[in-house]
């Protein structure tokens, strides 16, 4: 089935019969605000990133097992992006690309920063990298972050060194949802650089911090980055006890409920909090001045669903990096629309600058990402090749054609396998065209190899 047809049909079913009491065309509290009320009259930005959420894990993207009425409402009032991709099939690379607007390899962060690897604990997002927080804060924005960082464990790699005026969250790839300790039993929750232990359920804490921030800071342009840990493991529902204990890498017994049921409960709880985020935006009267985007950092694992796409987290088949994305911006995005334009995580940075009318002026760190404002307005983006690389896998996409290489097998049986797919007719990547279209594959391979050489020219030392 064609991916665009599938998601359009799923969106129609998910939103049919739902009553939304707020009209986007009606007069709002903030409609008559003067430019001075919001600094330079620039839009506010809210980026909500889920963790390991698959393409098929929310209602408006076809899920029948997870209830997400607030994300479904966001889609009905905004736009779903059916061809949105994370820059990497794992966490740290995508977060690096999101922040820098560049391929993560340029910053040496091709792989995930593992909490139990000494080399990784000493690595991170270098201070000379330019982030959207740096640029926005230099142009009158207050830029804050709550939730998962995963771009360095040492203070010099932290959010406060990269343009954020405030950070509260965790540094590792995941923490216990109740005990706030990482997989090695280390306490991992910080207010700035001070280690603290919050009360409550991880997802609720992150949403609550965002809601409080909006209520208290809506009188100036802001950028709020909410990086959820949900639904990454450990799979803990809102009513479950701690799974980990500080000082121990041993896990407590799991609750009797199945992982699939718990997974659904986790996503539903995140969805409830996102609904309250939107309530805070409306209560503040800034809905006509605010851009909100919801995305995931990579494809699913565990009980998650890739929505029919081949592959999962950690791989470069579509299921590893094609993830759900919803954009909401009244007045800029028509309600209930769908865009099939290819978009990547690194495109969010230039899109925010485009919407804010800010010029990016760092010639030494040119952006790889492109603004997707044309797609938001119902148009098309200029075609460009898109690239991915993770460990022994690499891929390039030109139009609907995707060329991919990966190493399969072990030891002496290891071999490089090549694939060529036409995503226009075969979005599930079932038919390998490599034998029938050798010349096209060879041309795409040269393009891919040239890109690898280019992005690694700034640093050969990649975390993997």
From TrEMBL:
Transit peptide keyword on record: no
Q: Which GO terms describe its molecular function?
A: arylsulfatase activity; metal ion binding
Q: What kind of modification does the protein receive after translation?
A: The conversion to 3-oxoalanine (also known as C-formylglycine, FGly), of a serine or cysteine residue in prokaryotes and of a cysteine residue in eukaryotes, is critical for catalytic activity.
* Coiled-coil region list: none
**What residue stretches are annotated with the Sulfatase N-terminal domain?**
43-358
Q: Where is this region: Disordered?
A: 236-258
List the SUPFAM superfamilies: Alkaline phosphatase-like
UniProt keywords (A-Z) are: Calcium, Hydrolase, Membrane, Metal-binding, Transmembrane, Transmembrane helix
Sites of 3-oxoalanine (Ser) modification: 91
* InterPro entries the record matches: Alkaline_phosphatase_core_sf (IPR017850), Sulfatase (IPR050738), Sulfatase_CS (IPR024607), Sulfatase_N (IPR000917)
In this record, what's one Pfam family? Sulfatase
Record-annotated membrane-spanning stretches: 6-24
Is Chaperone one of the keywords UniProt gives this record?
no
Write out the similarity annotation. Answer: Belongs to the sulfatase family.
Q: What protein name applies here?
A: Sulfatase-like hydrolase/transferase
């Amino acid at each position: 089935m064609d991916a665009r047809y599938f998601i359009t049909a799923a969106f129609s079913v998910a939103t049919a019969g739902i009553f939304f009491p707020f009209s986007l065309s009606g007069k709002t509290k903030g409609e008559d605000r003067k430019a001075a009320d919001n600094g330079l009259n620039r839009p506010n930005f809210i980026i909500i990133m889920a963790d390991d959420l698959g393409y098929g894990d929310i209602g408006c993207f076809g899920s029948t097992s997870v209830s997400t009425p607030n994300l479904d409402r966001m889609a009905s009032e905004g736009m779903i992006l059916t061809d949105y991709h994370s820059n990497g099939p794992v966490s740290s690379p995508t977060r690096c690309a999101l922040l820098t607007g560049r391929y993560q390899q340029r910053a040496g962060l091709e792989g995930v920063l593992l909490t139990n690897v000494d080399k990784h604990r000493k690595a991170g997002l270098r201070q000379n990298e330019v982030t959207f927080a740096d640029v926005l804060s230099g142009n009158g924005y207050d830029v804050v972050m709550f939730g998962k960082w995963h771009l360095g464990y040492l203070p010099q790699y932290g959010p406060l060194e990269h343009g954020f005026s405030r950070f509260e969250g965790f540094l590792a790839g995941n923490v216990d949802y109740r005990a706030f300790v990482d997989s090695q039993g280390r306490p991992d929750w910080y207010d700035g650089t001070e280690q603290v232990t919050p009360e409550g359920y991880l997802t609720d804490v992150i949403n609550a911090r965002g809601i409080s921030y909006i209520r208290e800071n809506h009188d100036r342009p802001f950028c709020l980055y909410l990086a959820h840990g949900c639904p990454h493991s450990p799979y803990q529902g809102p009513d479950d006890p701690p799974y980990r204990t500080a000082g121990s890498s041993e896990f407590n017994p799991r609750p009797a409920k199945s992982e699939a049921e718990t997974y659904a409960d986790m996503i539903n709880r995140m969805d409830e909090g996102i609904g309250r985020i939107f309530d805070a935006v409306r209560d503040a009267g800034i809905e006509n001045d605010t851009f909100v985007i919801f995305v995931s950092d990579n494809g699913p694992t565990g009980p998650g669903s890739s929505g029919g796409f081949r592959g999962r987290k950690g791989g470069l088949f579509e299921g590893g990096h094609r993830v759900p994305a919803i954009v909401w911006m009244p007045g800029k995005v028509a309600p209930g629309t769908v865009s099939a334009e290819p978009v990547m995580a690194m495109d969010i940075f230039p899109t925010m600058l485009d919407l804010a009318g800010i010029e990016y002026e760092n010639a030494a760190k040119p952006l790889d990402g492109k603004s997707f404002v044309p797609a938001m307005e119902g148009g098309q983006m200029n075609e460009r090749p898109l690239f991915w690389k993770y460990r022994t896998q690499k891929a390039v996409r030109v139009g609907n054609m995707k060329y991919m290489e990966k190493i399969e097998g072990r030891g002496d049986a290891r071999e490089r396998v090549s694939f060529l797919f036409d995503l226009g007719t075969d979005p599930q990547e079932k038919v390998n065209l490599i034998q029938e279209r050798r010349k096209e594959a060879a041309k795409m391979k040269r393009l891919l190899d040239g890109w690898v050489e280019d992005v690694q020219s700034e640093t050969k030392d990649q975390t993997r």
